[in-house]
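Quick review question:
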């Protein structure tokens, strides 16, 4: 963590770290499976290519030709069975097919039970990111308190900085909760 010498530094550090937490939450949401095809769902899958774990999107082109189908066209056709195997081994519950040139991944509509599991998982991710934002707030609060204790800032300045920090924390937490609510609605939506 960078050295915090003023309340301005503290707020800048808080802003940067909290915005990263929100962005990370967005990325994790993209990997959650709904009934709709989304190339980001494959981001977490790694394929063992010549002894190196590689993301699927670095081995070929991933396209979404229709709402319930992903097509992966690898640049090296010898990797097709490896991609197929990696997708089957993942916990996404997908059943890809391949013709030796491309891998097709149909996206079945999740069952009611699977939807509930996904929502439960979504809530776990949400809570982890809420906790991350609260931890950032705690760290920055401690830094501001330390500045006041060392007489580098006044008590009034400390109070103003902590109030600004609270407002920003609420704003970022609200962003995460809104994203979560939208994703939950998408998951529970039956097409």
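Suggested answer, residue by residue:
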């Amino acid at each position: 963590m960078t050295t915090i010498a003023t309340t301005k530094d503290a707020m800048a550090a808080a802003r940067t770290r909290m915005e990263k937490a929100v962005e990370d939450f967005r990325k994790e949401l993209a990997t959650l499976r709904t009934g709709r095809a989304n190339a980001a769902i494959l981001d977490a899958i790694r394929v063992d290519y010549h002894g190196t774990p590689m993301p699927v999107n670095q081995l070929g082109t991933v396209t979404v030709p229709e709402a319930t189908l992903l097509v992966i066209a690898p640049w090296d056709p010898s990797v097709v069975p490896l991609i197929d195997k990696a997708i089957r081994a993942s916990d996404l519950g997908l059943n890809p097919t391949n013709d030796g040139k491309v891998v097709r991944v149909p996206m079945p509509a999740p069952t009611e039970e699977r939807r509930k599991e996904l929502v439960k998982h979504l809530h776990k991710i949400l809570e982890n990111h809420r906790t991350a934002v609260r931890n950032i707030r705690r760290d920055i609060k401690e830094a501001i308190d330390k500045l006041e204790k060392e007489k580098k800032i006044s008590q009034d300045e400390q109070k103003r900085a902590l109030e600004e920090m609270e407002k920003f924390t609420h704003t970022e937490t609200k962003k995460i909760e809104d994203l979560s609510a939208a994703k939950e609605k998408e998951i529970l939506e039956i097409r």
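Why it works: The chain has four helices and six strands. The mean pLDDT is 87.
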